[in-house]
Amino acid sequence: MSVDKTTVTKIARLARIHVSDERRQAIATELNGILSWVDELNEVNTDNVEPLASVTGHSLPMREDVVTDGDRIDDVLANVPETKGGFFVVPKVVE
Amino acid sequence: MVDILDLGAVEARAALHAGEISAVELASAYIAAAEETAGLNNYVALTAEHALEMAAISDARLAKGEAGLLEGVPIGVKDLFCTAGYSSTACSNILRGFTPTYESTVTANLWREGGVMLGKLNCDEFAMGSANETSAYGPAINPWQTADGTDLVPGGSSGGSASAVAARSALLATGTDTGGSIRQPAAFCGVVGLKPTYGRCSRWGIIAFASSLDQAGPFSRNVADNALMMQAMSGFDPKDSTSADVPLQDLSAAVMMGVKGMKIGIPSEYVINGMDPEVTTIWQHGQDWLRAAGAELVDISLPHTRYALPAYYIIAPAEASSNLARYDGVRYGKRVEADSLDEMYALTRAEGFGEEVQRRIMIGTYVLSAGYYDAYYLKAQRVRRLIRNDFDTAFETVDAILTPATPSAAFPVGRKVDDPVTNFLNDVFTVPANLAGLPGMAVPAGMNGDGLPLGLQLLARPFDEATLYAAGQVLEDAAGFVANPTRRAGGV
């Protein structure tokens, strides 16, 4: 499983990070270095071992499905780069 | 005359209650100390005016007999914690100018107990690094130096926190630890750092790196101060769904408990290639000290130790790639204008995130992508369970585990490393505790031949921080370590 320039382009697209064409090969080399190192994990027999996603062992707590917070438009928009009439402003997505 | 900056938190608290010093006097001394040592770049924002206001309130509460646990104690806050009304950036350009309208639970707990906020402390960008060199504000510097005056890294990611506490520009500081980010810098700077059990301190309001591993904890110059701060900052929080509703032990009592009859495990797998021989010596001293204090040492095996780092470097970037998806140039922080939404996202993130953060987001994106999820992410989570099982087995026979905190002492700023994997090795002794969710403490244990501090690490069962404080105090007493670095504020 080796990462090439095409794979880097695909990952960068998924991660929404612009990567210049000249950087792609360098990034491929770095990622391959890291991935070949993590391949050590294949030495470990993990047959019948359940993945551990949470160390707490608790299930997530439940609560009543009621509104507990709200009416904070000013707080929500306090750090927005561009806002208009109480809304977020983004580049046009629909022609 | 004792320098006011040399008082520990427990001592300062006693002096405040006795009226020997005032909170305003103490805060002023620390503000001056931070200005005096500004060259260490451990603060990214000093909130002097706010500190003096909080200190005046503390003096009033002390006078009325309404003092909290940390009343009047000056505290520095890692820039990863959201502080209402004060810039909180995770030391990333993508969050430049971000001023939260809310306060993290941990810092709110500290202020409720009377703590005085001095300012925000430098760290690696989004806590990703082990030398504080990925910060958008430039590296923080370790107050300890070798004889030739070379600038050394304070460790990371909580490098500013460790540096400030060691340099006497903060009496206490908050940190976060995802793979060693409290314990490794504590060891590099000769201070005490605790990574609590996962779930002990609320993650609410802390800028997320890897949510199943992140845990906040205290930095201090001695073990008893650390216990006091931990008592104040921890606690169940319904706003964090992984917060544990488990009562905290009496940590101040634990500090005086000793280790008589305690069984301490020494894991054979923590002897690694390339370890500084002086680290091996300090580790041996630690074993001798605990034995002399009445503990029984037991050889143990944690067979999957060597797989902890590679598992971590799948799990942590995977979670980071997901957590950092929120930095999109729409809701907060930086935006690079572009004609289309997709282009705006991609340019904003390329300019806003530093190189190490981009690298980790890309690894994380790759290991979570279709076709690789099972081979990498699920495999790493299976290995994570085996690592946890190793500890569970060990803790059937021992009460705590003693290891070195780091494989070496602090290294020079700007050390060139071609291979990112070499940098990851800093965390070789600390990462397993994060994967297993265990509490771990770094305690300064001595110095190497260059006059730099070396630390030991103690690990215990989940929710048994008391054992760490008991054994940590024994190590501190026996080591007789004097935390007096070259580039510190004050001093007589």
How would you describe this structure to a colleague?
The complex is a heterodimer of chains A (95) and B (492). Chain A is mostly helical and 95 residues long. Chain A has a domain at 5-41: Histone, subunit A (Orthogonal Bundle), CATH 1.10.20. Chain A is 35% helix and 4% strand. Chain A has a two-stranded antiparallel ribbon. Chain B is an alpha/beta fold. Chain B has a single domain (4-264, 396-479), classed as Amidase signature (AS) domain (Amidase signature (AS) enzymes, Alpha-Beta Complex), CATH 3.90.1300.10. Chain B is built from 16 helices and eleven strands. Chain B has an eleven-stranded mixed β-sheet, sandwiched between helices. Chain B is globular and about 65 Å long.
Question: What distinguishing features does this structure have?
Answer:
heterodimer, A: 95 residues, mainly alpha, Histone, subunit A, two-stranded antiparallel sheet, 3 helices, 2 strands, B: 492 residues, alpha/beta, Amidase signature (AS) enzymes, eleven-stranded mixed sheet, 16 helices, 11 strands, 37% helix
Q: Identify the overall geometry of chain A.
A: flat
Tell me the series of helices and strands of chain B, N- to C-terminal. Answer: HHEHEHEHEHEEHHEHEHHHHEHHEEH
Shape call of chain B: globular
Q: What helical percentage do the residues of chain A reach?
A: 25-40%
Enumerate the spans of chain A where pLDDT stays under 50 for 5 or more consecutive residues.
none
CATH topology of chain B: Amidase signature (AS) enzymes
Kindly give the count of domains of chain B: 1
Largest interface here, residues on each chain? A-B, 50 and 72 residues
Q: What would CATH call the class of the domain at 5-41 in chain A?
A: Mainly Alpha
Rg of chain A is 22 Å
> What percentage of the residues of chain B does DSSP assign to strands (E)?
5-15%
Query: What is the third-level CATH name, the topology of the domain at 5-41 in chain A?
Result: Histone, subunit A
Query: Which architecture name of the domain at 5-41 in chain A does CATH use?
Result: Orthogonal Bundle
Please report the number of helical segments of chain B: 16
Oligomeric category: heterodimer
Order of helices and strands of chain A: HHHEE
Which secondary-structure class do the elements of chain A indicate?
mainly alpha
Q: Estimate the strand proportion of chain A.
A: under 5%
CATH superfamily name of chain B? Amidase signature (AS) domain
**Span between termini of chain A:** 41 Å
